[in-house]
Amino acid sequence: MEKSLAQPMPERDAEREQGCTGRTDKMTGIVKKIDAQGFGIIDGADGSKVPFIPSDVKNRHVLEPGQKVIFSVRRVKDQAFAENVIVMAERHNW
Question: Has residue 55 been placed in a domain?
Answer without folding.
Answer: yes
